[in-house]
Amino acid sequence: MNRREIDHCLLCNAPLTIRMDWKRLFVNRFPQAICQECEGKFERYRHEGNEEVDSLYYYNEAMQDYLHRYKFMRDVLLAKVFAGEIHRHLKNRKELIVPIPMHPEKWKERTFSHVDELLRQARIPFVHVLEKTTTEAQAGKSREERMKTPQLFVLREDAQVEGKDLLLVDDIYTTGTTIRHATQVLMEGGAKSVKAFTLIRAKGGQEAIKASPLMF
C-alpha cells in the first residue's frame, strides 16, 4: 500500500502533515486518512464495566455527518477513516467475526455493504452466516417500536456456527435491537457464545436517531 495515497483529509480536504519516523518506514501501518482537527471531533466511548457490546465512539454531530456521507452519500473511501482503530481492537480477537448483513435489495441500492467495507479496510477477516429478512429501516423508530420489531434475521443455509464463539460487528448500537435479534438466531443455531462490537454507540436519549431511511 502506498503510504502517501492519501495526502488530504478525507473529511475536510485539508492537507495532511505526514509524520515520518522509523516505525512508519519499517512497519506496515495504516495511512493517515483525516487531520488532527477532524479526529478531535469524534468522542471516544467510555466503557462501563464488563460490557457484552464493545464500541469505539459516541454518536455526536461529527459522527452523524460521517455516517451521512459514508452511507447515504455512498462515499466508500470513508471506510478508511477508522481502519486503524478497528484493526487495533479486533486483530487479536479469537472469535469468528460476523458482520451484520444488509438485505440484498439494500445492497443493490447502496452498491456496497458498509459494515463489510469497514472490516475490509481494517484488514479483519470475516464470514457471513446471517441473512437479513426485511428492508425496513430501524432509523427514526422510537425505543418502543424497535423493541417490538419482528425477527430481522435468519441463519444462512451454509452457516456453520455450532459450538463456536462469535463476534457480531455493526456500525452503530442504539437500543440493541439488531444485536439482540442476531444473537438470538446464532444461539438458537448452536453458537457457544455471541458478543458484539460496534464503531459507534448512541448516548442515552438517542434511541430514535433521525436520519434518512437509506442510512440504516
UniProtKB/TrEMBL annotation:
Residues 115-212 form the Phosphoribosyltransferase domain. It comes from the Bacteria. Belongs to the ComF/GntX family. This is ComF family protein. It comes from Ureibacillus terrenus.
